[in-house]
């Protein structure tokens, strides 16, 4: 007789099939708490995930806030590498390293300040000369327009139109509002210059102490590698500065000859200006270097400014595609294509600073990695030199066609 429930109805409950767990998965009792409650590990996992996200956001915010400081430190480090040979020579002769570093930076400061002062006085004199001679330039321009286009323009009408124009009024208002922005940018630039100078001084003066502190946390084998990388960085940075100095000399001499032939005043100073600014200020250095000679040449003859512009453009192309790759490959010992690509990559990553330090950084990395790459002897194969292989490859198509025709001829035999 079938079993019945308490109310007398037959029971329809059957034995439930046994739960099977796929291989490699934990039992359901371990994944789900008894009674359908939340597992104990889930709140901790959620808190850990939120903590990681918060730490990532905080680190990203801090990195963006400190980007300018990190770039300044990077510039200071490469500047310290550049003056390292001079400081080391003076220290080897018995001068204390701090005093030697101070003397090197003091000499650089005197040279830069003297050059800037000379250029400032020259530029101020030329601007005053242009302002005094502006009415004459305007009269000559108006006469040329009247003769060419048969007009009747007058200088008085043009001056009154400019003084009462809305464009001049808006320009004066915008210039007055932008004085504070320019002042803030100048103060910010001076602060960055001071920051770079202080860090570079400390890096150069405390170079041995910095290397000792870095090596103290590394095993002896790693210490030798770090010291070798430091030595390579000093050599490559010095080679890069040597190549830049040589290109500055060539550029300065070329522009000096042009300006001297045309009779432009201050030709020697302008040649030095073009050479230094175009080589040591990346990205916009060429435009800044060419603007001043054009401005001064314009005071002599407006057509001279056009000739200077054409010469600057042509010489820049010659320097970019012929002179710079050759000198860089010899002094820094990297391929011209690698040097060109490193400048583009550095500009994309760090802007003007990246363009300036890209070549010595890539040269240092290439030289350091080259010591640990295993190399093998190259086989004497013509294909290595770009020649085709001389191995026999069978008869050509003309020979095969001739043999086939001879085989089909009456009395011919195949393979003749």
From TrEMBL:
Pfam families: AI-2E_transport
Membrane topology according to the record: Multi-pass membrane protein
Annotated region described as Disordered, given as residue ranges: 1-30
TM region positions: 69-87, 99-128, 182-204, 246-264, 270-290, 302-318, 338-365
Subcellular compartments: Cell membrane
Keywords: Cell membrane, Membrane, Transmembrane, Transmembrane helix, Transport
InterPro entries associated with the record: AI-2E-like
Protein's name according to its UniProt entry: AI-2E family transporter
Originating organism: Streptomyces achromogenes
